[in-house]
Amino acid sequence: MNNKWRIIFTSLTASVMLAACGTSDADPEKETTDPAIEEPATPETDVEEGTSSENEAEIETDAEEETSEVSMEDAVETASDEQDYSIMVLPGYKLTSEEPGRDTLYFEEDSETFMRIETMPKDEESYTFEELYTNMEELLTASSDGETPTEITEETDLPKADGITSVKGATVESTEGYFTGYVMEHEDKLVRATVYAKEDNEHTNEFKQMAATIK
Q1: How far apart are CA 16 and CA 19, in angstroms?
Q2: CA 87, CA 102: separation in Å to the nearest integer?
Q3: Which run of H or E residues covers position 97?
């Protein structure tokens, strides 16, 4: 019994005892006892609300996980005109060749949001995987007016596919925009994909998903 109800019970008991002393000749059969004061039942809403909140949190988490991966169901395989690769291109994006060894995959509603794709064969004259990654960091630094890139350590933020044997990435933010670079190693080639986005870093996830399909 909590303190509130204990105090009330004690006060009522004292009142009954005083009244009994003042009416000693009262008919005992007419004396009545106070009805028992029941403790209020423990509210069940706290448990239910807690469970409901947990369920809502789980639903929100599941929704976030579902939206973190972009559906490639409607993507179309597109071959580069200048380089030896193909890529699955989502609706609303277009692949074009800038120059030999360099293509641009851009968002059609805003061509300043794009991913530059460069591939090179794995041979003695080519960069190594680590050399290409270092070169990419230098490119990100130059693109962001001297800002230092941060290596991407979360695997979910990197392109993943069966054909990719190694992958590393880095990102940097500046007043010029958001820049993300990936270096991917395949059995026959190295790929560098550099994403240039603006403001709230939109479309980076779509570019990452498409970069993973390069083969």
Answers
A1: 5
A2: 14
A3: strand 93-99
